[in-house]
Amino acid sequence: MNSKLTSENRPDARSARAEGVRERILSTASALFYNHGVRAVGVDLVVEKAGIAKTSLYRYFPTKDALVVAFLEREDIDFWSTWDAVAMAHKNDPHGELDAHMDWIGERLLRSGYRGCPQINVSAEFADADHVARGVARSHMHALRERLTALAKQLSAARPEELGAQLALLVNGAFVSSELLLAGSAKNILLSSARALVAAAIPAAAQKKR
Length: 210
Description:
With about 210 residues, this protein is mainly alpha-helical. It is about 70% helix and about 0% strand.
């Protein structure tokens, strides 16, 4: 018996092929879910557009809910990787960091085909508060507020939890109101609004130290 493994049968090659299939399924489903909504997209459509067998889809995603969760987790990674890169670029400069976050989020609103925050969109599709997709979306919202609250503490806000919540409402409001903003105005509105909230939240003595 020939025990030699061909290049195609090596474990690493099989693993790479499997990951490629999974990524194709997830990429296809993510685009469909984002552009058309989760409820409007069935598993059969994902299978058709991805060009794979239904058994392949269920091998990696046992249920549609599992596929929706993977879609939201993928969006989560994309969002927070950008956030972390911006935060690192403005380490020890909370005012500069907040301005930079408003800038890139404003740019995000102007992307071609932008249809709002995926987490907010999916959460709105499910009435059941205990649905697994809403749980993922809720975690994203809480993480946003926590990060903004941490930033508010660095800014020496008198009530950081309150400022963090206000900034989170500003960002989420922008996500769901992008169509109301004039072309190119999103960044300026976010920036001026965030600065106004910060100015109102920071004691006069702390502002003089800047």
